[in-house]
């Protein structure tokens, strides 16, 4: 089991989700991720979310559904900027789903450094 304090954390104004290669793509895992997301999203300084997609498994409907739930929850806390990091097609697939949420702006980048640059501006 992955330690969620290492997967989801806050750095300055950014709520960062690091989804490692070995992460299980189950509904139960993502329910716990979203619970932790909501805990961290309530911090007043947080205004941006970065999802760093490193997992090897392909994304499925459960992942998309949980991502949409997180985007809606983030909006409630004023998080409307999402940066999705992935070198592959996963970022496009996730953007197509989360981008359907009105009021959420999505940026796609290849590296975490690029994501942090966007979050700083």
Automatic annotation (TrEMBL):
Domain of life (superkingdom): Archaea
Protein name as it appears in the record: Uncharacterized protein
Native species: Haloarcula marismortui (strain ATCC 43049 / DSM 3752 / JCM 8966 / VKM B-1809) (Halobacterium marismortui)
Taxonomic classification: Archaea, Methanobacteriati, Methanobacteriota, Stenosarchaea group, Halobacteria
């Amino acid at each position: 089991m992955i330690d969620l304090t290492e997967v989801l954390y806050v750095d300055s104004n950014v709520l960062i989700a690091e989804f490692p290669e070995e992460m299980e793509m189950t509904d139960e895992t993502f329910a716990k991720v979203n619970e932790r997301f909501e805990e961290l999203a309530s911090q007043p300084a947080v205004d941006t979310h970065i999802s760093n997609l490193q997992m090897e498994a392909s994304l499925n409907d459960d992942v998309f559904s949980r991502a949409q739930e997180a985007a809606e929850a983030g909006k409630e806390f004023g998080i409307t900027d999402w940066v999705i990091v992935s070198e592959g097609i996963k970022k496009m697939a996730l953007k197509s789903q989360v981008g359907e949420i009105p009021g959420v702006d999505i940026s796609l980048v290849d590296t975490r450094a690029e994501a942090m640059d966007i979050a700083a501006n």
